[in-house]
Amino acid sequence: MTSARALQQPGTGPLSGVRVIDLSINVLGPLATMVLGDMGADVIKIETPDGDPNRQNGPARNANMAAMHLNMNRNKRSVTLNLKRPQAREALLRMVETADVFVHSMRPAAAERLGIGYEDIALCNPRIVYGYGCGYLPGGPRENDPAFDDVVQGEAGMADLMLRAVGVARYLPTVLVDKFCGYMLASAIGMALYSRERTGRGQQVRVPMLESIIAFNLQEHLWGAVFDPPLGSGVGYVRLLSEHRRPYETRDGFICVLAVNDEQWRRLLPVIGCPELVSDERFCTVDARIKNIDHVYGVISDQMKTQTTAEWRRLLDAIDIPNGPVARFEDLLADPYLNETGFFQRYEHPTEGPMLTTAVPTQFSATPGGLHRPPPLLGEHNVEVLSSIGYSAQDITTLTR
Fold first, then answer.
1. What are 79-116's pLDDT values in tens digits?
2. Sheet containing 203-208: which strands, arranged edge to edge?
3. Model confidence, pTM
4. Any idea what DSSP says for residue 10?
5. Does any domain span residue 28?
6. Kind of pairing, strands 203-208 and 129-134?
7. Residues 132 and 262 reside in one and the same domain
């Protein structure tokens, strides 16, 4: 594990100089704004006096500083405002005047009730990029329906994928919809900023969870339904739905192996002890392997049981076949490769003590992102931010309660 390091100085990332006002909570929005902060943006996290609910989610050393907050809110400043008070909304709009980006994760009707819909914010700052993640397509009949990751996983067919593959309808054990849409929102905001630099105009950016994840799922699973009427088996990429598509059991554990093209299969089959299958019509082409996928994967599964994981890895590496062990999350923390490349980073939080985080995986040769602010305490930057836009100490006390 890498030793604790000093935080990077702000101002080095590709979004250096961009200011983001972030009213989002939970996962989708905070992840999006964390990505922007990692890339150098000055992210001001606006919270209610009670804070983002994720401040209470997970293990904690101190109140309002739970694990989920710590792992999604680095590179941000925290300001508490009670937006139900007109004075607090006025303070927010003053901040908007200095900002480039405005982000929230409310339903459109809720934002309108608070007077922070797109028209309200754009009137205050026409150059603003106004972004939010929502459950369903804005302007549609469900735009104000509540939505969370589990619900959208079911509606988007992800639970059905599990039913088809393993016989049980269940959610993926990760908040994939929230995380994917969070990264989509960050990306879309970056594109809108680029457009603004060319045109001078701000705009609204909206990422609906359901439509986004359905498009994501159907990239491969639209399959034969890409034709009208559908060809073959219709919807569902059959290779991914095979019951044998799983890590292969070895003599002492499990291994992941994937040969894709014909040349790789010609190299793989002799090494696993099946040279006669090189000329077997079921193994010769991509189309043939797909049509016989259960048999193909079944053969590999049977052969992998004959040697240890380490033995197979040496043999497969020698013929350049992609392979890897099945790692537990605990294994990742001690993985020599990840630690050699500095993927896991330790730092000292001013109040929470020694902390562990992941590095920014996207690399820029001239303007690298990084960790330059630890996750903030609730309201930690009230005075710093609000005094900079003209509020007195007494005003700040009133606004932030």
1. 999 998 899 999 999 999 999 999 999 999 999 999 99
2. 76-80, 42-47, 19-22, 101-104, 129-134, 203-208
3. 0.94
4. S
5. yes
6. parallel
7. no
